[in-house]
Amino acid sequence: xxxxxxxxxxxxxxxxxxxxxxxxxxxxxxxxxxxxxxxxxxxxxxxxxxxxxxxxxxxxxxxxxxxxxxxxxxxxxxxxxxxxxxxxxxxxxxxxxxxxxxxxxxxxxxxxxxxxxxxxxxxxxxxxxxxxxxxxxxxxxxxxxxxxxxxxxxxxxxxxxxxxxxxxxxxxxxxxxxxxxxxxxxxxxxxxxxxxxxxxxxxxxxxxxxxxxxxxxxxxxxxxxxxxxxxxxxxxxxxxxxxxxxxxxxxxxxxxxxxxxxxxxxxxxxxxxxxxxxxxxxxxxxxxxxxxxxxxxxxxxxxxxxxxxxxxxxxxxxxxxxxxxxxxxxxxxxxxxxxxxxxxxxxxxxxxxxxxxxxxxxxxxxxxxxxxxxxxxxxxxxxxxxxxxxxxxxxxxxxxxxxxxxxxxxxxxxxxxxxxxxxxxxxxxxxxxxxxxxxxxxxxxxxxxxxxxxxxxxxxxxxxxxxxxxxxxxxxxxxxxxxxxxxxxxxxxxxxxxxxxxxxxxxxxxxxxxxxxxxxxxxxxxxxxxxxxxxxxxxxxx
Amino acid sequence: xxxxxxxxxxxxxxxxxxxxxxxxxxxxxxxxxxxxxxxxxxxxxxxxxxxxxxxxxxxxxxxxxxxxxxxxxxxxxxxxxxxxxxxxxxxxxxxxxxxxxxxxxxxxxxxxxxxxxxxxxxxxxxxxxxxxxxxxxxxxxxxxxxxxxxxxxxxxxxxxxxxxxxxxxxxxxxxxxxxxxxxxxxx
Lengths: 542, 187
What we know:
The structure holds two protein chains of two kinds.
Chain A: H1 2-14, H2 17-25, E1 27-28, H3 38-59, E2 66-72, E3 78-84, H4 85-95, H5 100-127, H6 136-158, H7 163-177, H8 183-191, H9 198-230, H10 244-257, E4 259-260, H11 261-286, E5 307-308, H12 318-326, E6 330-331, E7 336-337, H13 339-356, H14 358-361, H15 373-396, E8 401-402, H16 410-416, E9 418-421, H17 461-473, H18 500-509, H19 524-540
Antiparallel strand pairs in A: 1-4, 2-3, 2-9, 5-8, 6-7
Helix pairs in contact in A: 3-5, 3-11, 4-5, 5-6, 5-11, 6-7, 6-9, 7-8, 12-13, 12-15, 17-19, 18-19
Chain B: H1 26-55, H2 57-60, E1 67-71, E2 82-92, E3 95-107, E4 118-121, E5 133-135, E6 140-142, E7 149-151, E8 156-158, E9 170-173, E10 176-179
Antiparallel strand pairs in B: 1-10, 2-3, 3-4, 5-6, 6-7, 7-8, 9-10
């Protein structure tokens, strides 16, 4: 077979065959069950993240430069708000690039799956005492990989640069900033300045796509090397105690009676990994990933959803969010430790340190969870507390509310809303202050106009209403609200479309492939409006 | 090899080049320390500038900006906090970008006319930096994140925040109250 000949050719020059055989046909204890598949499932999810991440990076722009956009909410109102290149590039990937929504979905749901799979993996290792001699180093490296996962989710969350990402990161960095002594310096270095801005985005981008993957890749390599070198622990027997002699005899036993990794063990791994991938793909198809409104440092009721963003974190950080509400300040006499430093930095650091040093703290030879009741009970208590805090947060946090106090899913509304990038020179209202109502604005607003040619006229109210009519009837053929050619020609900049009579005639009577639209489809009033819109884009757009 | 067979002394590198009788091993020692020295020098030369680049924002300080909140006469008898939305432009890295903030202006006394007679409260919660919201019905500021409450003057009514809301430094210019919306506060 050709592949065999290629393999032999490579082996002759590298001597790789014995190493491959060692890895693939090493004997694994028979007691290995389905719980032992979570490590390889994490590796699979990591590969999903690498793959989707590479393609997302091809379309993403880590820039806070202003892009004015025109948005239509589901009830039809139109507003112009300032978005950014970062958010619009993410939206472009998700809504316009072929299979871009798939890449985004893979990456988003992969990130969620990663947290779940890694935590189950760690719980399996903990409760089966697999971190004990001689696997302590494997555990240490594993805890670092867990920290990398959290680092990925913190830095990746900011990249879409929408309002939710902005406020989550605001709080996240300030939690780090509340650490005694060095906190403020760490926060400033992470932000790249005193406030969240362009430098924060580029810093987080570099960490997310360059530094963290490099470190994580190395850690995974070491983790896997140790697993292959030492072997799989298998399920603990009730009175079993791991000593040097015991380890030697069990590994010898496994060598004699165990099953070959390929194909017996890897089959289970493959099944579970395939299931995890299937869940990620299913979620990608069923639950589109949306974005909220563009960053709004005033966090107003946003003009599209009518709701105000509730800055709560992702579900897996909700326990910390809730914890921060209930921890008190502690007065040490000479120094007061703030509740945020205790709840956000000191206790989490202690927990991570305890987790890291588990193999040092629990050096007893017994592996079975019932043979070491103290560590088992402590772990269950901590888990129960995390679950309780998460549930409390989930039921008590208000969510994104509109002015009437009703819950609105901002991400969903923006996902459904129609978004049109504005050409440069289109007048924009500064920020999203369209809803600021009643307060005197000051300073220089209208930044969107600064970059443009200044030649374009403001869209009239009729033309704005006409856009709605256009979107309801015409965009199937005149794509992108007339900006692009579809089945019908492009209308932007079309000299003939400036003639109102010509346009009205074509709408009422049809022309070529274009069907006629009767009064039952477009009323006379709507006809005037849509003609105003067509005239506007024909005159003012290219 | 089983782990219990592990004997570190068995792994010592046997140096075939150096006669075992040489008591000083000077050439060998020189080369060893040379390798460490060169390695350390290269590392320092690369890592120190990289770390300096990363932490430079710590010493870069505030961007100075003077943005008007409004005519001073307008607030002369504004003894309850008045919400003002301020829009401005600033240079973020190399680009001009729009900025926006909501502040609360209050005259400390009736007929205020000097900068120090006024207070402009930052809406940024001193707990973890969410935006507090003025609740007209209770006459206090609520934070939506972790539930802190501040009174009209910015003092803490209920934690977890333990510091009052910050006041911007103020100035008067051409009859207008001006402040720096980029003034950074340690939370």
